[in-house]
Amino acid sequence: MAASNNGSNITSNHTNQFVQPPWRVALWSVPYTFVVAVAVFGNLIVIWIILAHKRMRTVTNYFLLNLAFSDASMAAFNALINFIFAAHGVWYFGETYCKFHNFFPVTSVFASIYSMTAIAVDRYMAIIHPLKPRLSGKATTGVIVCIWGLAVVLAFPLCYFSTIRSHRQRTICLVAWPRLKDDTLKYHIIVAILVYVLPLVVMGITYSIVGVTLWGGEIPGNSSDNYHGQLRAKRKH
Question: Does an H or E element contain 94, and which?
Fold first, then answer.
């Protein structure tokens, strides 16, 4: 009888060890709700301001719009699911949403990083080379489409290998990478270079040049002899 009770307790512990107590769930829910509300509604306000006012539709603001959209959608589609999964330790939402859950947030993060990189390059061109033509609306749209396309390609393996499995009498959502460790390692190296190293280098170089130029008091673009002539010609156009 005692052995039976011990077995029942062990099973119960395995079943419930990942479930958070109600007081902790309630405590976590307050800051979590605040963060999600700010992320969703704050970014929606940014999107509305840019789309509702024509004078706000600049190249930089279009990239900000893309950044706000990716952040707001990630908070809206994944934050609540993350909270439920963390609180209960059980995946209730099926395999299809498991794939989306692992795929979309990473896609949004990639898109956000490259949007910030595009903003850095755009600010560099506007400040250091003010006389050179800026991106047109179509070109900006093309860059944004390319950003999302690259983000989807880089995050697709997370969608493809995501699955649900039963583990210790509970269902979990995970990325089941193949046993070919070399391919998996190559993927992570490529992602690290394209998503972290390359954007960091680009933003570091562009903002450093802008900062040094502005700190030195030099008027960007004023180093050439015909600067004022170019400026007058541009104003006439």
Answer: helix 94-128
> Which are the contacts of 186, defined by CB distance < 8 A and separation ≥ 6?
none
How many Å apart are CA 65 and CA 73, to the nearest integer? Answer: 12
What is the pLDDT of the chain when averaged over all its residues?
A: 81
Q: Would you state the pLDDT for residue 75?
A: 86
| Tokens standing for residue 82 | 């993350």
Is residue 2, in this structure, part of any structural domain at all?
no
- Name the phi and psi angles at 166, rounded to 5: -90, 125
Number of residues in the chain: 237
* Domain assignment present for 85: yes
pLDDT (tens digit per residue) in 158-213: 999 999 888 777 888 888 888 777 778 888 899 999 989 999 999 999 999 998 88
In a domain, 15, yes or no: no
Does residue 3 register a pLDDT over 60? no
- CATH number reported for the structural domain that contains residue 59 in this entry: 1.20.1070.10
Say if 61 falls within a structural domain: yes
**Which residue, among 96, 101, 95, has the nearest Cα to 78 in the 3D structure?**
101
Contacts of 108 (CB under 8 A, 6+ apart): 70, 71, 73, 74, 151
- Count structural domains, the chain: 1
Q: Which domain holds residue 100?
A: 20-213
Calculate ∠ Cα 191-197-199, nearest 5°: 100
164 secondary structure, DSSP code: E
Question: CB 62: neighbour CB atoms within 10 A?
Answer: 22
Rounded to 5 degrees, φ, ψ at 58 are -105, 170
